[in-house]
Amino acid sequence: MLPKEIIEKFIYDFNYAMESGAGRACEGKIQYTTMNLATLAAYRMDQYKGEEFNPYTCPFCGFYHIGHSRGERSLGYKLGKLVRKWRST
Q1: For 3-22, how does the pLDDT look when each residue is reduced to its tens digit (9 = 90+)?
Q2: Using only C-alpha atoms, what is the Rg of the chain?
Q3: What is the distance in angstroms between the CA of the first residue and the CA of the last residue of the chain?
Q4: For residues 65 and 21, what is the distance between their CA atoms, to the nearest angstrom?
Q5: 56 exposed, middle or buried (CB, 10 Å; 0-12, 13-18, 19+)?
Q6: Residue 62 to residues 11, 16, 34, 43, 54: CA-CA distances in angstroms?
Q7: Residue 55 near residue 35 (C-beta atoms within 8 A)
Q8: What is the reported pLDDT for 51?
Q9: Where does residue 79 rank: exposed (0-12), middle (13-18), buried (19+ CB within 10 A)?
Q10: Spatial distance between the Cα atoms of 61 and 26, rounded to a whole number of angstroms
Q11: Per-residue pLDDT for 73 more than 60?
Q12: What is the pTM of this model?
């Protein structure tokens, strides 16, 4: 069984993500009106920064944004990281 502090940290992160809403989720992001425009912008950012960007539909505003792949930002990744840290101690 996972330690209580790991479970509590995951629940805190999950609740924070759900409560942050559109204000925080969309803050500073360009709202593209079509997936085609967002895809083109993601491609240009790939070329400019040399990193992978992906377009996605925002569940809060309904427009399209671009961003890095979710890997290290996802709650599942964060939980896995906490579990690996706990196992290594």
Answers
A1: 788 778 777 776 666 666 55
A2: 16
A3: 15
A4: 15
A5: middle
A6: 26, 20, 10, 21, 16
A7: yes
A8: 81
A9: middle
A10: 8
A11: no
A12: 0.55
Helix (H, G, I), strand (E, B) or coil at 66: strand
56 in Cβ contact with 64 (< 8 Å): yes
Q: Return the H-helix or E-strand segment holding 67.
A: strand 64-68
pLDDT tens by residue, 29-57: 899 999 999 999 999 988 888 888 888 88
Q: Which two structure tokens, joined as six digits, stand for 1?
A: 């069984």
Report residue 34 as tokens: 């079509």
pLDDT of residue 18: 62
Torsion of CA 45, 71, 18, 5, to 10 degrees: -140
Instruction: Report pLDDT for 23.
Output: 59
